[in-house]
Amino acid sequence: MRLDVLHRTRYRYAQAVRDSFNELRVRPLDDAQQDCERFLLRVLPPVRLRHYRDLHANHVNFFEQHEAHASLEIECRSRVLTRAPAPPAGPAFPMARLAECARMERCHEYLQPSRYVDPSPAAWRLALDACHSQPELWEAALAMMRLVFREFSYDPGATTVQTHVNEVLRDRRGVCQDFAHVMLAMCRALGIPARYVSGYLYNGPRQALRGAQASHAWCEVFVPGAGWLGLDPTNDQQADERYVKVAVGRDYADVAPVQGSYRGTAEHELTVEVDVQAVVG
User: Do residues 58 and 130 share a domain?
Assistant: First the structure.
């Protein structure tokens, strides 16, 4: 599937601000499941854009705007060729061998507590309720995804981007970011390496997926022999060709699309527009 993505972020300040510094994680990744064929980034007022790869191999564009400005607009347009993942039935890997994952360098940081995710006793109990002594890692991950989808209410007004997973575990409501954090906490509590994924989700004309036509979030669990496999607890499904991966990390703090600072008034209006369309022909 070939998808066109528009992501536009606008800030309008009550008074002119200056010395703005921003990091952007908005360019889709290239991996076995997708190729970013085209990427265009535009910032107004015009700035000099620079680029680097962070510790998670995400693309990071950054810029400085020292001149006074009353608004800031960041627009990116991407075209991504996506492919269907491997069949949902992952390779057999017994839960009894999870200690092997802890010794793998690629997994270590995705087993640790992070800013928004704490593998607390509450997460551990929920994970045990979901798995019921499931002997296989992949089946255990699927069971946790299904529990989050079944037991947590989708409520866009219940949380913010700074909400910690412990609040979501207590209130049992939130959005895709929160559900991804809950699943991460459950996986890590059991010793399953799991990481946060930010990106987009295409909602076809006959589908009703939650979190589509906005920045979306899901999880990837590491299965030895298969690598990182995507699971979306918001929609109770494996990430497939409708998903566009932009960045990965320990939690939302590592992958925020726009983060930065500036000097001036704290009063501002923020609008975000996301549009994902399939390319026909």
Answer: no
Torsion of CA 249, 251, 256, 259, to 10 degrees: -100
On the question of pLDDT at 207 being above 80, the answer is no
**Encoding tokens for residue 270?**
């923020």
Alpha-carbon span 253 to 269, nearest angstrom:
22
Question: Strands 243-249, 194-201: parallel, antiparallel or unpaired by DSSP?
Answer: antiparallel
- Which two three-digit tokens encode residue 91? 């390779």
One domain, residues 242 and 263 = no
Number of domains in the chain: 2
Q: How many residues does the chain have?
A: 281
Co-location of 112 and 44 in the same domain:
no
Question: What three-state secondary structure class fits 33?
Answer: coil
Q: What's residue 214's pLDDT?
A: 76
pLDDT, tens digit, 9 for 90 and up, residues 22-38: 999 999 999 999 999 99
Query: Quick one: CA torsion of 213, 250, 41, 4, rounded to 10 degrees?
Result: -30
Question: Taking residues 122-149, what's their average pLDDT?
Answer: 93
Are the CB atoms for 12 and 79 separated by under 8 Å? Answer: no
Mean pLDDT of 76-94: 82
DSSP classification of residue 88: S
Q: Rounded to two decimals, what is the model's pTM? A: 0.94
Cβ–Cβ < 8 Å for 276, 268: no
Per residue in 86-116, pLDDT (tens digit) is: 765 556 899 999 999 989 999 999 999 999 9
Same domain for 270 and 243: no
Burial class (CB in 10 A: 0-12, 13-18, 19+), 185: buried
Peptide bond into 45 cis (omega under 30): yes
